[in-house]
Amino acid sequence: MTPLTGRALAAVVLAALLAGCGAGSGADGGRERGAGAPARSATTAPPADGAGGAVRPLARSVPVGLRIPAIGVDTPVMRLGLAADGTVEVPPVTEDDVAGWYRHSPTPGRTGPSVLLGHVTVGSHGDGVFRRLARLHRGDRVEARLANGTVAGFAVTEVRTVAKADFPTDDVYGDVDRPELRLITCGGPRSGEEYRDNVIVFAELIATATATTSGER
């Protein structure tokens, strides 16, 4: 299916984010989530300015793993589609929490904003896979392991915590002319089972490599 872009993508993703982020006990700590066989690092330490304009876009290949060394994330990636009500799906609330790639956005490394979502908490199970997302800084590396055996290496360019009522739709989902990544979870104060804010990580492609193992195509 053709990826959605711009406001068409924003409408479905934003609705799902406003619906909930797997609220539950604990916002930090807990065990790290494993992702199985590790992938080789896609690049050396990214440049401070996050410059990635010289890296060519990759061929389409779905993400099967996500690694963020700075915050201890090493997780499988599931595919997310649309729910019955027309909003984007979010990963299920389970003990073995994983990140999810919205399959109507570009695959990581393709031109445009590739969107991955994860929980900050997962109900009674405790911590979610993106519980430390807000701790990332400019220049931190994010590696997406693709089904064709490629590792797409991104550098964080910005981390924002914004009120859900002020979600920056155009900045997050607007069309861009280079491969970029968006990692999104909930954050900020909680009221009952709801979080007030969203944490959004912006990153751009800086390098690619071949993984030591590849996932399912």
TrEMBL record:
NCBIfam families: class_F_sortase. Keywords: Hydrolase, Signal. This is Class F sortase. Residues 1-26 form the signal peptide. Residues 35-49 have a biased composition (Low complexity). Coiled coil: none annotated. It comes from the Bacteria. SUPFAM superfamilies: Sortase. Residues 25-56 are annotated as: Disordered.
